[in-house]
Amino acid sequence: xxxxxxxDALAEAVAWIARSLPSRPVLPVxxxxxxxxxxxxxTLSCFDYEVSARISIDADVTEPGTALVPGRLLxxxxxxxxxxxxxxxxxxxxxxxxxxxxxxxxxxxxxEYPRLPELPRLAGTVDGGVFATAIGQVxxxxxxxxxxxxxxxxxxxxEGDTITLVxxxxxxxxxxxxxxxxxxxxTASTLLVPARTMSDAARMMAPGVPVRIMxxxxxxxxxSAAADAxxxxxxxxxxxxxxxIAGEYIKYSSKFPADFGSHGDMxxxxxxxxxxxxxxxxxxxxxxxxxxGPGQVTIEAGTKGQARARETVAADFSxxxxxxxxxxxxxxxxxxxxxxxxxxxPPAQAPQATQAPQAPQAQDKTSTPAEGxxxxxxxxxxxxxxxxxxxxxxxxxxxxxxxxxDYRYLVVPLRALASALSR
Length: 423
What we know:
Shape: elongated
CATH class of the largest domain: Alpha Beta
Largest sheet: 9 strands, antiparallel
Structural class: alpha+beta
Distance between the termini: 61 Å
CATH topology of the largest domain: DNA Polymerase III, Chain A, domain 2
Number of strands: 27
Strand order of the largest sheet: 6-2-3-4-18-17-16-10-14
Helix content: 10-25%
């Protein structure tokens, strides 16, 4: 095997693959990164029987071949190489030469390496920018408690041309709905995908670039997922696959109250920035408190004898209960997702050459851009509150409006959270 590749392209590809390498491989060979050089370029991949990653990049290949090398070591080496083309050959060990620098890597036994999974069944496609945004809105709410595997995943519900992503850690719940293009009309299925893999998949997506979603063995349903049930995401020469989590997800629809007694409607950016500043003085276990008054909301944090912060933001409010407090990180995660929703859809990239360009839509030159709003709805300081975002400006005193927005974040207030954790 011998090839020459650009340093930056190799370093980026290896770094992306290395994110999927197991931190504690059950077999030493699973720590390897597979290099496959062929006439059409270089393919790098890894697989640990749970997650696989694959990327193809351009390379000048003079001798095709395959080699398995220690993945994390290769990532550290390529990240530190000088800015010259990299020449790789495997006459004895695998040797990387980059300008004056040269490294030799001992290879791992390819015969013991598992074959990468194939996902021939295309489920559908979705815009990369929209999908990546949706993933970023829900994954912060997924649990990191591995003793409860079901809630460490993102529940992906497919119903026709709509995908619903759901994540929870029992104390907050995030939902995002988005449209996609199913390969078969009338598709309906539920897939429980590890949240970490969903986050890694979002890193390979870009606005305007379609993402192919592929599945295997998913007909068994969420209660008893087949042993080989997998989902894969492919876009821009990169593919990421993962086994699905077996089990039945929580019945989350009943968690949303039918109505809320208090409604606050606030400008998205000023509110998010104010909460972020005030939260700087919130100690572990303390809260960020929101108190609504005539035409404004006051955000406070801190305790007597320690650092304290207070800031006000304009707000339209109606309701009897006027104050509520949250865990700072839970509130910030919800506001981040709502802020994205309030900003509207991400701009698409220019159409590719293979696509027909679309005619620009006419705009009213006299109109001004709408200011995004964040809406907080709650009933009492001990019952779950709902945070949503909207790209539309509301008039003074006009609260509510969108009864079922694309993004919803249900969060337990701090008083109820502290009570639950103390049991």
